[in-house]
Amino acid sequence: MNILDRFREHKVIGGLVDWERLEEILKSEGIRLLDILGKGHRGVVFKGIYRDREVAIKVPRLDAKNTIYQEGCILKEVNALGIGPRLYTFSRDYLVMEYIDGITLKDYIISGDIDREGYLNIVKEVLKQCLRLDIHGIDHGEIQGGKHIVLKPPRVYLIDFGSAKIGRTPRNFTSAISLFFGKSHIARRSCEILNISEAERNHIIRFAKRYKEHLKNSYLFKSPRTCTSNSQ
């Protein structure tokens, strides 16, 4: 039994993927499948080899709205800002991107002793990337929770732009502030690692609220941009 046949019989994703179409994609793009990485609300992600690189291959779920092309367009745009896994190629029913072999912030925060300076650099990098997205009118949509922030030293990646939108007021920076300094477990742990007092945390939250109001009043990116698929 080859690996594709084995995946067809997978208890969770077996009925979620158009396997005939996936087989066509693998042949046309010269991709070799290695493993299943997981499933989201709208897609299933595999690990594979493409042009001698380890990649993640995302295809739409049969039982959900297909947003693969939109995600590819947005990932192409954020790559130009130095954000996200590198996009290699995409179409309306598949997306091939860099495979990030790292640890999510959600898992990292509970991993034990964490160096303050190292963690401060992580927070700064996430906030900088979120500000960059805000400035360019791209809303990731799922910054909170920490599972879409992946650490692969020395890089910090924002991943999974499947819920991202262009044309709505972006909330990336304020979502990141809430993630690191709000009321969640990640926020409490972050303040502990960074030695931030309750008064300092409240000051940060007030600043984020003022920023949010300013952004809402001055937001200019109301029109979606056009996009074409490409290969790299």
UniProtKB/TrEMBL annotation:
GO molecular function (one): protein serine/threonine kinase activity
SUPFAM superfamilies from the UniProt entry: Protein kinase-like (PK-like)
Record's keyword terms, sorted: Kinase, Serine/threonine-protein kinase, Transferase
Transmembrane regions listed in the UniProt entry: none
Domain Protein kinase: 31-232
InterPro entries in UniProt: Kinase-like_dom_sf (IPR011009), Meiotic_Drive_Suppr_Kinase (IPR052396), Prot_kinase_dom (IPR000719)
Highest taxon of source: Archaea
Protein name: Serine/threonine protein kinase
Species: Methanothermococcus okinawensis
